[in-house]
Amino acid sequence: MKTTVHIIHWISNIAGAGALVLGLLHWFANISFLSAHMWFGLVVTLALLALSIVLLLTRGMRVAGALGIIYAMIIPLFGMNQFLLLIGDWHWLVRVAHLLVSAGAMGFVGIMSARYLKLKQAEGKDAPQMSAPQTVR
What we know:
The chain is mostly helical. 78% of the residues lie in helices and 0% in strands.
């Protein structure tokens, strides 16, 4: 499972960076790759959901897993409906909130991945060491 968590973390980082770059291009330079931006956002959300399921099945991380699942449901709802919120001069607040919610999802994946790996490493150290079998004479 540790390898799976590493892969989920890297996928989230790469997709999150892609979504961030495309979102900022749309916001500041009026260069629109919104479909690709939404696909990258979907990948980040699915990575968060996958990690949350792993956490939900891990003793000591179940609350974080449940919170991650709730967060993964909020992200697409907010992202897809942001164009309907505060239309006009105040819409920049919605864009900033969208950026913060998305960055929060990437941060959640990073922090929870690190905690999961630290927990598994500690479990490995606490496990009794098997010694070589002794021969009876």
